[in-house]
Structure formats: C-alpha cells, structure tokens
C-alpha cells in the first residue's frame, strides 16, 4: 500500500541528544576466568578411581554386581564405537551433522541403567549412549542427523523423548510430565510397579538458561519427581563451565530447596549408584534432585566445531587419563579373560558395520511429507501450501 504523507501529518521528530560515551567498565574485558576446580576434592562421589581401584564413599555403595559391570563395559565400548562410526559417516557426507559423546559414556550408561520401566527420559541432543543402552536401535538415533526424519524413535515405545536442540527446553517438558505423574497418583504410592520418575539430561551451559531455572522452581514447588542430570562436560561449545558458574553446579540445588549431588561422571559405578538413589527418592515422592556429573567432552562440540581452537591440549591429556572405559577395563581385567574384551570389541565393530549399512540404506523421504504430522489435523493454510508445493514440484516433470 502506498501511503502519501503530506506535510504536517507526521510531526517532525526532534533531534536525538548525542548518546553519552559508554562508561569504561562496560567495554572492559571480562575478569579472568578462575582456574578449574582441582582433583580429587572436587571430583564428587567416586566409587572407582581412574586406576581401576575401588574406593568407598560413606553415602553411596556400589550397586552393580559383576555381571552388571560387564554389561556397563560392553555398553560403553559399543557407544564409543558407534560414535566413531557416526563421526566417520558425517565426514563422508552421509550425515548432515554428528554430535559426539566421547568421554561421556559412563555418565550416560551409568545413569540410564538406573531407569525402570515406568520412568520417562527427556534427553538433550548428545545422549546417544542413553538411547542405545535403553534399547533404541542404533540407526534410529541417526535418522534425524541424516536429515530423513524430523524425529528419531518411537517415544512411547522407549519411554524416552526425542532430542531437543533448544537448550533446556526439555527441562520444562520433564517437569510438566512429572507433575502429570503426581496428578495421576503414580508417585509415592509405595507400589514399585506403579511409581515412576523422570530423568532429564541437560548440559552445564544449559544450566544458565532461564528455562532450566524455571524448571527447578516448578519442580521444587510441586514436588515433581524429576531427576535433573547435568552432564558438566566442562564446555558449552567454546565457553568453559567456570565462565558460567563460580561455584559447583550441584550446589545450585541448595537455592531451589532440593538435594544436589556432584558425581565423578567418568565413574560408571558412581553414576549408577547415585542415579539409582535419586530416582528412588523421586519415585517415592521426595521431589526433585540435581545430579552434576563431572565429566569431559573428549571431542568437538559437533562435527562443525574445531575444539583444538579452545580446548587446551594439557586439559585434554588430564581427562584422557580419567577415561571412563579404561578404568572399568582395569577393574574387570582382574577376573575376566582377555578374550572377553576382544569379543566385546568385535561385537561393537559388527554393530558399527550394521549402522553404516542402515544409514546408507536410508533414502530421503518424498519432500511433500514435510507437511505431515505438523498438527493432528491439517489446517486450511497447510492444505493450500501442500497443494501449491505439489503443483510446483510437478511443474518440473
Ligand atoms: C536456547 C538456545 N540457545 C543457544 C543455542 C546454541 N547452542 C547449541 S549447543 C550450545 C552449548 C550447550 O552447552 P551445554 O549445555 O554445556 O551442552 P553440551 O553441548 O556441552 O553437551 C549452544 C549455546 C541453542 N541450541 N539453544
Ligand atoms: Mg557442556
């Protein structure tokens, strides 16, 4: 629409006064980042030391027996191998993007193993080992990242929501789900076959989001059965955790009025013991818990990132010496035949080959399917857009 503005219709805007110069402090560089917390005092609850020896913690006992320890080991080796394969697939142009989990296998497998059938998981976007440990087929985790689907797996079948890229939004979904469980009477009934809880994963960077902090308030106020599991992998892309928090993240729970526990996130036994306790606390009606898994991302943020630009090599070396898989291997090596480790490796290689085959067999969907499932019922606007799009595509034939 053309608007003709005659003289006098719009008052002449008075000249703006010149903006005062910025005070020096506003443009000064931020203060230096304090050094990272030092081991061992800050490692959190630990039941297995980096050298493979067992340690005790007065609050938590090891809950995993020998068979479960072997299962943890197999699951972590499998996750690392599939992660490597997916990274290679992305480098070869077969995936749009990959989000590596290397280094976080214990934090994910140990916590996922504490989940019971009536619990529900809300992941962020890096929790592939959680999904795989819970039985989500490997290929279903990569569908989204191959760009052939808007989602991943059947959330109802696996009691696990799909990934969310919007940082911390899943914490609100988790609290809403947990509040629903309270209303359904499936929390604190005392019946283990009836009660459930929610396990929601978020990163150290996501802890700074408003959504996460709102979720903490709601969960505390309504006694929602939610275990917030923060994988503090020391980095939010290139921003170190110590830039985002001057205190241990687990301590933030104090201010919201629920328990917070820091755990050695590279210790699968500690992750399993603490998450088991936290989920039981939530299922029993005790309300939320925050777990901070102190771990490290031994890979770039995604395949689009170059972590060598900001992760100091010395820091990486320190965390390599705390590798979550190696420490469990050292523990198991005392009474497991060497051949068993080879079998685990071969099984993981086979699974990686299967993943590659499944990935290459995933054909792109018909473009018009992007209009499907936006709403339960198609709106008139959507129908018009779909019809226009179909006619446009057909005009090329
Ligand atoms: C609301 C929102 N803001 C910014 C981003 C961009 N972003 C994607 S990942 C990321 C860093 C997240 O770090 P962290 O929470 O520590 O998780 P990590 O990637 O280390 O697992 C950022 C800033 C986003 N996805 N969503
Ligand atoms: Mg992080």
From TrEMBL:
* Any single Pfam family the record assigns to this protein: E1_dh
EC number(s) given by UniProt: 1.2.4.4
Please give the residue ranges the record annotates as the region Disordered.
1-44
- Per UniProt, the enzyme's principal EC class comes to oxidoreductase
In alphabetical order, the GO MF annotations are: branched-chain 2-oxo acid dehydrogenase activity; magnesium ion binding
> InterPro entries from the xrefs?
Alpha-ketoacid_DH_E1_comp, DH_E1, THDP-binding
Q: Where is the Dehydrogenase E1 component domain?
A: 74-334
Gene3D superfamilies (alphabetical): 3.40.50.970
Keywords in UniProt for this one?
Oxidoreductase, Pyruvate, Thiamine pyrophosphate
Protein name stated in the entry? 2-oxoisovalerate dehydrogenase subunit alpha
What organism does this protein naturally occur in? Frankia torreyi
